[in-house]
Design brief:
Radius of gyration: 21 Å
Largest sheet: 8 strands, parallel
Number of helices: 8
Helix content: 25-40%
Shape: globular
Distance between the termini: 41 Å
Number of strands: 8
Structural class: alpha/beta
Strand content: 5-15%
Amino acid sequence: ALLAVAAAALAVGACGGSSTPQGTGSAPSGGQVANGPPGGRTSSRSRSPSPAVRRPTPAPPSHAAVPVLMYHVIAPAPAGAKYAGLWVAPGALRAHVAALAAAGYTGVTLDRVLDAWAGRDALPAHPIVMSFDDGYLSQGIAAGAVLRAAGWPGVLNLAWHNLGTPGGLTRSRVRTMIRDGWEIDAHSLTHPDLTTLDPVALRREIAGSRTAIRKAFGVPADAFCYPAGRFDPAVEAAVRAAGYRAATTERAGAARPRDDRYALPRIRVNAGEGAASVVSSVRAAVGSGA
C-alpha cells in the first residue's frame, strides 16, 4: 500500500529535470497608535511629561551562511520510477537528520534565516533549513514524523495543483504541518517552466500561488521556489513584484546574506545518499569550521 501511494506521487508533478539548473540572478508593518490628552489641548504647564519609550536594542544582522537542503519524495522509489533520484526513503531521511544533529546542526525555517540576516532574530550556532518541494503526501507523513521527533521545522515549497490529488498533500495534512512549525512557501500554481510564459501567465503562476496559500492557510508564504530551478531576469522580477522576501533555486551551495535574495542556492539530496555524505556536502558548502 505504501508503494502504491508512493508511486502515485510521481503523477503529482515532480520537479524532475536536470540536476543542473538554468537561470540567472541579480539581489514590518504596524499601526501607529496616537496617544493624546482627552479633550484636546492642554497647557504646557499642566501637561504631564511623556514617559521615555524603551525600544528593544536591535540585534546585529547575522552573517551566517546557511545550508538549505532540498528533498522531494520521502519514500523508496518503485521499480521504473521516472525520476528515481528524487526518492529518499524515510529511514535515510531519519539518518540524515540524526547525523546533522550530531554534527551540531539545528533545523530552522527560511523566514527565521531572513529575519536573522536583517537583525530581527538570532540563529543557532549551526542552522540548517530542510526544504521539501512539490507537496507529496509522504512529506507530510514521513518527513513530518522525522522532523517532529527531532524538534525541527521544515519548509514546504507547495505546487498548488498537487494539493488534494492522489499522492499529494491534503489541506488537513498541511494544517498539521503548520501546527508542527513548518513554513509553507510557494512553488507556482501548476509547476511550469516559468521562463516560457507570457507576462500575464507568469504573474498568475507566481502571485496567484502566494494568494492561494495565504487564503487557504493564513500563512505569509514569504518565499518562492522556482519550479525545476528555471528562472531568468523576467521571472525574478515577477517574484519581487509579487511581494516575496526571497526565492530559492536548484543552484548548488549554501545561502549567504550577501547573495541575491531571489536566487538563493540549495543542496540537493538524492536517493541512496548516506548520512555521512550529506554532512560532508553541508560542511563543504558552508566552508571550513562548519
